[in-house]
Amino acid sequence: MNIKGSVLLLTILLTAGCTTALTNEGSMIRSANSNDDLSKCEFLGVITAKSPEFAITPAQEAEYVMNDARNKVAARGGSHMKILTQNHGVFTGATINAEAFSCAMSANG
């Protein structure tokens, strides 16, 4: 295999699997902000999402961890998430801790 082929193969291997695909259910999760009233929503627990330590770019890392968080809230049957902490480390990847809520569609949009 020539050098161009080796570089191309290495690039494909490094970027494959570096992002978590957002599921259909995950795409429906709304991030709650300070204006949202979640008092009438059912609390489903706290989720922790983590990106891999080998993300190629900070943007890719942020996308991965946000998709992972939304997918985890959706897997619990949630409709909203309230981010508690969000950390990005140079060699540790990114993490999000968030509360998952199930809210009626008429409440909070």
Q: Can you describe what's shown?
A:
The protein has about 110 residues and is α+β, with helices and mostly antiparallel strands. It has a single domain (about 5-100), classed as Hypothetical protein apc22750. Chain B (Translation Initiation Factor IF3). About 30% of the residues lie in helices and about 30% in strands. A 4-stranded mixed β-sheet has the order 1-3-4-2. The radius of gyration is 17 Å and the shape is elongated. The model is unreliable at about 5-15 (pLDDT under 50).
Index terms:
alpha+beta, 2 helices, Translation Initiation Factor IF3, 4 strands, 28% helix, 109 residues, four-stranded mixed sheet, 28% strand
Mean of pLDDT = 82
Outline, from the CA principal axes? elongated
Helix content, binned percent: 25-40%
Domain count, please report it.
Answer: 1
CATH superfamily membership, which one?
Answer: Hypothetical protein apc22750. Chain B
Report the end-to-end length measured between terminal Cα atoms: 55 Å
Radius of gyration over all CA atoms, rounded:
17 Å
CATH architecture level-2 label? 2-Layer Sandwich
SSE string: HEEHEE
Which fold does the CATH topology refer to? Translation Initiation Factor IF3
What's the level 1 CATH class? Alpha Beta
Structural class: alpha+beta
Largest sheet: spatial strand order? 1-3-4-2
Strand % is: 25-35%
Tally of separate helices: 2
